[in-house]
């Protein structure tokens, strides 16, 4: 259980623990990050076999940061206490970048910071989004929701590209941000029922929602597992479908990103993007009824996504290589 894990972590490494009691070697910290990453509960594994072996510990360290920060936000059970802990987590970022890591996550992260010369800004943006979750539980406009995704999702994409040593040009950044925002939104549409019942959060923008007495009807329907009346299910389907349609446009903006990347990054990004596309398609297959149900990918579907991503990026590189050779031969003949 994530709540038990974060409470155990705080008891041993939290802000009230003396510094000397938090000592841990870098090797042990990175092993702990790998263990946490393998036990993850996201739609898609962070450490697929497509992640180059020499950066898997770095991916695990970044994941450990994100997972722990998210748990500090969501698994404490008290918004005021969560804000205090997130402020402490922000201070731990400063300590790590000054060369004095305390918490095991940052001990695991320091070699990654140094190897890739990472900026603290993406990590601070993520904490900012988690802090917002403590006070903002409803969104008035689509633009407000997109701004939240800019801090809760887009930094992760920039970090992935940094770990894979991809130059982040303007076009690459645009594609990465579009994919990451789409992934975050897909997660929201998938988790509508759970977010309401477990977190009292609704990410459906009010400006898109003209359903009468929506929140009461949503809560009753989500709690009992079937629509509260004859019209709510169809009304909610249309609302979710409109949000899904907007999310597809973001996936389309980022669709050509893998083709712009090198052979190390392309299959990783392709896998993450295809995973989100598959979940969004599953939401549609469930007729956008996620106010009542949470669709999930099967293990076979996940394996298929990895295989397709590997094959598409490999085939793309073969085509590019073949095209380059042809051009080279033609040039020689000329």
Shape: globular
**CATH homologous superfamily heading of the largest domain:** Farnesyl Diphosphate Synthase
Q: What gap, in angstroms, lies between the N and C termini?
A: 67 Å
Computed structural class: mainly alpha
Main sheet: strands, sense, barrel = none
Helix-strand pattern: HHHHHHHHHHHHHHH
Query: In CATH, what is the class of the largest domain?
Result: Mainly Alpha
Per DSSP E runs of 2 or more residues, the count of β-strands stands at: 0
Could you explain the architecture of this structure?
The chain has helices at residues 2-13, 26-38, 56-74, 79-97, 104-116, 121-135, 142-152, 154-163, 170-190, 192-199, 214-224, 232-253, 257-260, 266-285, 299-333. It is built from 15 helices and no strands. It has 334 residues and is mainly alpha-helical. It is 70% helix and 0% strand. Helix 9 runs antiparallel to helix 12, helix 12 (232-253) runs antiparallel to helix 14 (266-285) and helix 14 packs across helix 15. It starts with a helix and ends with a helix.
